[in-house]
Design a protein that fits this description.
By secondary structure, the chain is of the alpha+beta class. Helix content is 38%, strand content 30%. A hairpin with a 2-residue loop joins strand 3 and strand 4.
Length: 105
Amino acid sequence: MAEASSPTSARYTAAEKHTPMMQQYLGIKAQHPDLLLFYRMGDFYELFHEDAERAAKLLNITLTQRGTSNGQPIKMAGVPYHAAEQYLARLVKLGESVAICEQIG
C-alpha cells in the first residue's frame, strides 16, 4: 500500500513550482530534514517554513512571511550574518542540530 505524502514532503518535491533559490533551499532541506537549516542570503542567515517557526520560538526572534512559493506563504525568520555565531551557540546549547548553507549561484 502506498504511503500518503505529507504536506512537508510535497513541499520538498514540488520543485518546479518554486523560485530557483527556494528550489535550492528545499533540496538541501529534503536531504537534512531533522536539522535547522540556516541559509545565507546576503547579510543574513534565513530559515524558512517549519524551521523558521521553531527558530523564532527558541531564539525569541521575529517570525514573518516573505512572498509565496508553490502558492503558499513562506514563513521566514533570520539573524544577521555577523551575529549568527551567538544564535547558533544558543541553539546547540538547547540540543538542536543545525546546518549552515551558503547560497550557490
